[in-house]
Write a structure and sequence with these properties.
The complex is a heterodimer of chains A (about 120) and B (about 120). Chain A is mainly beta. In chain A, the strands form three sheets. In chain A, strands 2, 5, 6, 10, 11 and 12 form a six-stranded mixed sheet that branches. In chain B, the strands form two sheets. In chain B, strands 2, 4, 5, 6, 9, 10 and 11 form a seven-stranded mixed sheet that branches. A four-stranded antiparallel sheet of chain B has the order 1-3-8-7, with no helix packed on it. Chain B starts with a strand and ends with a strand. The chains are: A mainly beta (about 120), B mainly beta (about 120). Chains A and B meet through strand 5, strand 6 and strand 11 of A and strand 5, strand 9 and strand 10 of B.
């Protein structure tokens, strides 16, 4: 069964600080996909990244970076030099290849960036 | 331009009065999803259509039904809404090829209130 755990329910940091959001997943598949979504106060979920299980290379996109480690079943997300606009709820999600039409979300981490 | 459109943005219904939420997409994606999201919780998958194939989650109440008359449209019917059904309902689409799920595109959601 697939499962996504985001142990941090809420985080507050001061603007310009770096912050890491944790995501741990469980799956029996060897082929799977991991996602991060952002949900700002407006409510619409915005796609950030998709990573397949065979690609453990870390990725950087501007101030965002992702650290995928299969050995610990983790897919952590770091925001560098945080900004107030980064305040949102961030969801990690998992899709298994044998059920690649189904995406399951973690409970989310609410991030507050304080000015 | 919005690619996944949900109407209405806010819906108020009475306890026990059937209600239908609508979703349309311009992406020509083969998979459409309905998620329920209650306050401060993760989106919970209710069901999804893989083309015309309906996939119901085991814990989705019978009170919830769905229709997909064509590729572009998908409806969520709540036959007898209870107070516990008040939530944000999110429609999403995805292009799934059988080998990979690219990502979910979400609509802005319909916030359902039950009086």
């Amino acid at each position: 069964a697939q499962k996504v755990t985001q142990a941090q329910t809420e985080i507050s940091v001061v603007e310009k600080e770096d912050v890491t959001l944790d995501c741990v997943y469980e799956t029996r598949d060897t082929t799977y996909y991991l996602f991060w979504y952002k949900q700002p106060p407006s409510g619409e979920l915005v796609f950030l990244i998709r990573r397949n299980s065979f690609d453990e290379q870390n990725e950087i996109s501007g101030r965002y970076s992702w650290n995928f480690q299969k050995s610990t079943s983790s897919f952590n997300f770091t925001i560098t030099a945080s900004q107030v606009v980064d305040s949102a709820v961030y969801f990690c999600a998992l899709s298994e290849a044998n059920r690649d039409d189904k995406i399951i979300f973690g409970k989310g981490t609410r991030l507050h960036i304080l000015p | 331009d919005a690619m996944v459109i949900q109407n209405p943005r806010y819906q108020v219904t009475q306890f026990g009065k059937p209600v239908t939420l609508s979703c349309s997409q311009t992406l020509n994606h083969n998979v459409m999803y309905w998620y329920q999201q209650k306050s401060s919780q993760a989106p919970k998958l209710l069901f999804h259509y893989y083309d015309k194939d309906f996939n119901n989650e085991a814990d989705t109440p019978d009170n919830f039904q769905s229709r997909r008359p064509n590729t572009s449209f998908c409806f969520l019917d709540i036959r007898s809404p209870g107070l516990g059904d008040a939530a944000m309902y999110l429609c999403a689409t995805s292009r799934v090829t059988g080998l990979t799920n690219e990502k979910l595109f979400f609509g802005s959601g319909t916030q359902l209130s039950v009086l």
